[in-house]
């Protein structure tokens, strides 16, 4: 691809995929700019180490890459980045990127905002690897690969935890001996880039709501909920790691810690337990069918139905819990792959919320994935909004590029 203007790259390195988006550099970058930087193209390599597949599209949908590779050619993330770098060098020959923004899952207690990456930042992110074992190492692999190839290029880390950095100790504590809290063993919360985008979007589409007590449900492959007051996060269902809270595609969500002790007592190693809690649990574990919500909704096996029912029940429970934190509820927003696109899941969650919160959906608006999906008589407005984590990363990166931070 050839573009006429300088570009910002956004890198989102997941456990088996790397997503790259190309954005134009905006004229101005600050919180109040109406529109996020324009996305010019998006590409991804999925199935790293299993069935590698690279694809890329321009913003108008034109396919510019669609290729499958033998697994020996892309066995790991290092190889995936080399392949991506080669493709980007070719595609962006005339306009090399002026900055790269990375999604970084864990910023721990150190980072309450996006940060320019240097050796010191890399060392501090490295120390957080045990708290996000399936994501943070890949985030760092991407950062190091760019640093090796272009040491002077501006790289910015944008954190999933940062939006929650202002949480009160009530939202951060776990009832372990206090010295662990002091060492940073505390609840952080994740999906913050998505929540920051929704807080911003609410100001545009429902300014009254944006000022109020709102629960946002980010339901994608990972899933969590966030309680916001006046657009600021006050509580999240995720904790020290991205395992806590809602059951997810393959992650367990909240479980009795005694279950982990029981597994260990059966002789399972920490690595095996970790692999199970992150990769074999949640919707996949319960259904035995798939981690993918669309596949479960299409399946007629009793366990697929059980998994979806449990998901909706647990989501509603978490909403009740967060409403206690907020002291009431002025609005509910669904977002991410499932939240923004699945009328069925939203209806199942909201069915649990009718008696307590007077929530009712407009079946047609919900079925059409409209922005406002609650009925006129619903005591609490309910919205379905697309999220844009990559746009938020592009904005934060542009802020550091244009304003120095
Ligand atoms: P990630 O967390 O990897 O970014 P997404 O936000 O894209 O994931 O969410 C992926 C999930 O969204 C999958 O479970 C997928 O089945 C689900 N999903 C996407 N579209 C729909 C839909 N129309 N109906 C139900 N589920 C959907």
TrEMBL record:
ATP binds at residues 19, 218-222, 292-294. The record marks 191, 251 as: Transition state stabilizer. It catalyses: acetate + ATP = acetyl phosphate + ADP. It is an enzyme of class 2 (transferase). Mg(2+) binds at residues 12, 389. Gene3D superfamilies: 3.30.420.40. It is found in: Cytoplasm. Mg(2+). Can also accept Mn(2+). GO terms for biological process: acetate metabolic process; acetyl-CoA biosynthetic process. Its EC number is 2.7.2.1. Its main location: cytoplasm. Homodimer. This is Acetate kinase. It comes from Cupriavidus metallidurans (strain ATCC 43123 / DSM 2839 / NBRC 102507 / CH34).
